[in-house]
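Write out this protein's structure.
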Amino acid sequence: MAKGLGRRLAALFIAVSLLLCGCSPTTAQNAGTDDDSLTMNTWRSYNDFHKLLAETRPDLPLSLISYTGCNQTGYSWAQMQADDIPDFFITSQILDEELAAERLVDLSAYPFINRFSTSILDQVAIDGGVYLLPVNSVMYGIYYNKTLMEEHGWTLPNNFAELETLCEQIREAGLIPGVIGTQLTGNTFSTVFNLAKTSWLTTPAGLNWERSFLNGEASAEGTWEDTMDYVQKYIDIGMFQTDPEDRGNPTIILDYLGSRKAVFATAVLAVSITELPETGDQLGLMPFISEDGSKNIYMYSPSSYIGISKRLTEPGNEKKLEQAIEVLSLLFSEEGQDAFINEQTPCISSVLDHSDVGADSMIFDAQQAFQEGRAFPMTYAHWEDILAGIGQSYKDWFRGENGMDGPKCIAAMDKQKQDALKQADQLYFCESTADFTLQETAKLIAKAVGSGLGADAVMIPLGGYHENGSELYSGVTGKLYQGKINLDVVSAISPYTNGDFLIMEMTGADANTLVQEGFDAYGDGMPFEYLLVTKGDIMLKDDTKYRIAFLPEGYTEQTAAAHPTETVTHSLTDFLHRWLEQQETVSPDGNPW
């Protein structure tokens, strides 16, 4: 890696795992509160909007419910399925349109809906209603070194013939035309699908094929051949050269574009810079070029969608519904949209119709395309079970590995989908017979950890949202709901924590003192709750020593220094998977440890 390159990676892209901090709204632990506050799960990127709301509309109280687990979107839909959503429902994907229409308010009749373009509303409409609206959108295309292009007198191509000619000129100048990131199979998956969208995949026939394929009623063979031929053309002209070290997208852009090795980079990445640090060159964004130039398109992915629980339409909730609509009216105003957009989010586009980002913006052309219906959603929802496998086939093709080519990729698509359909029921390894509370979920996790570590007890923190904006990533914040359990469910209830487990030897009195004091994770005098779960539900004796297990990052340095410790490297997900599989079914009052 080039000197200093690693230090700049964090500055290149938006870290989508960042959660809220420093907000002013009050605390809430459950979907319903005893006061009149509206409730909302904490969600990435809403911090500045919450500040705006508190400053401009203090009469609209909002209580935040902390969720810091590993699967934010999966958990939001688990809440939806269990009819346990907050007043505001937020998700990154619309995974179940019928359920959304059943659980959420139809927003199509409210005045702020007129601020959206018809193309956006058409894409989110469900049987004529609008239940989830995109909050803002990340724009995607092909990145390029704009300064380098200008120095050579090169202009952006309008069709494939022009792209082919340009790539020949780039090679004659001793440069690589384009590089594609292959480390993440989602990047290769999206690249091929994006080229398909420059022709047939966004047509009614294409959308019908997608639905039929996902249901196992159609095949890729007989449909994808022209697209694969077009992808091969991109490969042949040098647009999709791969990195021999197979590094990630941030490194690809900094190294190849920043060091002037290549002109273009195909990477599904929301950068947070517009100037390349090595040279000061300007970064540009161009569309995916269609063969005849009639459908040059950008992709977009809403950073989140938001809706309102239909619970607010019930008698007695008239005031809360009115307030919720006012919150959305602020969110979908220019001022509200500006709260999500700053210098570190140059790829973020407002969802408002006719919003202006300025002609010098990196996404100026992309937003014009967005408003004119020449931008399309990234393909992801409903492809989750086979996306990685298909992307791996494309990766092998781009990298010239395992003899893969276009026709073999088509065959692999069909095989992977049929295999997934056959194995669908095998993905579930346990079942919850009832809804769990947060405390009951934490106790279940503790049983799995204690059993796996052979401990006498487990000290497990419960997460929450504090008034100073702090949340606990090593705390349990997701509830287990009734239904079948797979790895997605496990990730949804697991804390988002890294590191080693620690087993401390301490007396029962020491353990009980910790429970009383709580977990002061940030040393700010605002501790989070500790839950002590013991093997066999025994009461710990004050003067007897026990082996107490702690989650990674679930203890303070002072506590660890005060007791003899044993470090265990293991995966929390693996502990949960194995233990749940052994149980076969789980219930809040069952499954003794």
